[in-house]
């Protein structure tokens, strides 16, 4: 479908697609097998100015928004979701700075992020704080002109690789989530260390580690926004980034569909290509329809967010929920179409199926997304019927 991209948006999409096809696809299987962080590809994306797409122009960016980031993530994910999430996690870590940072913080951090010189990460999840954010135990205590951070964050994408971390910590335990605050912590700060690189089912090229704070001292100027704004910053950030997870899912699903169509045209059984069998045709038709529906929703939500709309949490949740469920279904169907070959590592759909699963889990499980959507419906109905 024609989504009426501007000339600049079309150029961004085509550039990302070319890098995906020429640079990422040839090494995707090897990066996955070796579980190797794609630093060379991050450099290429930086040189192509793709880290700049969501950063305002005054800080070295291209002045785009969620939609431009979505276009890039989708194309990269079509080739390798592990590479794509390493790229997208830098947006997750930098959106809080863009939205809530002081002018000094923006000038200090955003130009290096936009150039790809420094990666960012977002440190929220802990062992006892996943879907239930109220379980956060990492603390930040003001001591003179410094905050002292103590605690451990878990499963942090780009952990150990990123140079800039947006960290959510407790500054006033008595206030619950209203006592959370957000901080910027730089790699190399004394007291900041990292756990082992986790071995994962999918997105293996990306780095997932614990981020550990042991009397980690940072200047009080590294506070993002005000004390007590951490929960709001987290939710506002997810409103911006959940469509990116949806785009990741769309890209994975599109890649799997492409592989399934090509295989069905070439695979001969009973004297004819299996693409001539109605059973296969119906599967492909359903897969294509689901992918296009997911893309249309993700694009629409991303554009709506960029328009400045305020009440977007339910829509961001819908984009993430629907697209990730589609990715899981389409990749499973792609494996089925390829049959025994689909189950083998030498064919990419096996990896795509593994990669798809995480899109239903991170940045809020799909069960949490359904909670968000349903609660929004209930609140709006209550207001309407007052």
Largest sheet: 4 strands, mixed
Determine the structural class based on helices, strands and strand pairing.
Answer: alpha+beta
Low-confidence stretches: none
Number of helices: 10
Give Rg in angstroms: 21 Å
Specify the helix fraction band: 40-55%
Which CATH architecture of the largest domain is right? Up-down Bundle
The gross shape turns out to be globular
Strand percent estimate: 5-15%
Count of beta strands: 10
Terminal Cα span: 42 Å
Give the CATH superfamily of the largest domain. Butyryl-CoA Dehydrogenase, subunit A, domain 3
Strand order of the largest sheet: 1-4-5-8
CATH class of the largest domain: Mainly Alpha
The H-and-E topology, N to C, reads as: HHHHHEEEEEEEEHEEHHHH
CATH fold-type name of the largest domain: Butyryl-CoA Dehydrogenase, subunit A, domain 3
Mean pLDDT: 97
Total number of distinct structural domains: 3
Secondary structure elements and their pairing?
Layout: H1 7-34, H2 39-47, H3 66-79, H4 81-100, H5 103-115, E1 120-123, E2 139-143, E3 146-157, E4 164-170, E5 180-186, E6 192-194, E7 208-219, E8 223-224, H6 230-266, E9 268-269, E10 272-273, H7 278-306, H8 313-338, H9 349-358, H10 366-384
Helix pairs in contact: 1-3, 3-4, 3-6, 3-7, 4-5, 4-6, 6-7, 6-8, 6-9, 7-8, 8-9, 8-10
């Amino acid at each position: 479908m024609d989504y009426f991209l501007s000339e600049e948006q079309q150029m961004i999409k085509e550039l990302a697609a070319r890098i995906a096809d020429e640079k990422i696809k040839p090494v995707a299987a090897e990066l996955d097998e070796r579980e190797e962080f794609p630093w060379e590809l991050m450099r290429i994306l930086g040189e192509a100015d793709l880290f700049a797409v969501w950063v305002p122009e005054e800080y070295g960016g291209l002045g785009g928004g969620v939609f431009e980031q979505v276009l890039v993530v989708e194309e990269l994910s079509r080739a390798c979701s592990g590479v794509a999430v390493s790229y997208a996690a830098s947006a997750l870590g930098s959106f809080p700075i863009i939205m809530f940072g002081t002018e000094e913080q923006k000038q200090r951090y955003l130009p290096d992020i936009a150039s790809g010189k420094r990666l960012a990460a977002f440190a929220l999840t802990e062992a006892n704080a996943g879907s239930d954010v109220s379980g956060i135990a990492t603390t930040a205590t003001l001591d003179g002109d410094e905050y002292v951070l103590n605690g451990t964050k878990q499963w942090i994408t780009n952990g150990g690789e990123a140079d800039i971390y947006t960290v959510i910590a407790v500054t006033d335990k008595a206030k619950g989530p209203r006592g959370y605050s957000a901080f910027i912590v730089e790699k190399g700060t004394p007291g900041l260390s990292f756990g082992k690189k986790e071995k994962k089912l999918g997105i293996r090229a990306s780095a997932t580690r614990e981020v550990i704070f042991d009397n980690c001292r940072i200047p009080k100027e590294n506070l993002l926004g005000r004390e007590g704004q951490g929960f709001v910053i987290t939710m506002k950030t997810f409103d911006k980034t959940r469509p990116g997870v949806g785009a990741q899912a769309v890209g994975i699903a599109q890649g799997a569909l492409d592989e399934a169509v090509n295989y069905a045209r070439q695979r001969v059984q009973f004297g004819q290509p299996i693409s001539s069998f109605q059973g296969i045709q119906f599967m492909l038709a359903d897969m294509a329809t689901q992918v296009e529906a997911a893309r249309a929703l993700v694009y629409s939500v991303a554009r709506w967010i960029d328009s400045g709309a305020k009440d977007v949490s339910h829509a961001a949740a819908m984009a993430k929920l629907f697209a990730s469920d589609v990715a899981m279904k389409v990749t499973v169907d792609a494996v089925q179409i390829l049959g025994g070959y689909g189950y083998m590592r030498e064919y990419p759909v096996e990896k795509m199926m593994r990669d798809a699963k995480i899109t239903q889990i991170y940045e809020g499980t799909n069960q949490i997304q359904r909670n968000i959507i349903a609660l929004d419906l209930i609140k709006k109905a209550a207001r309407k019927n007052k």
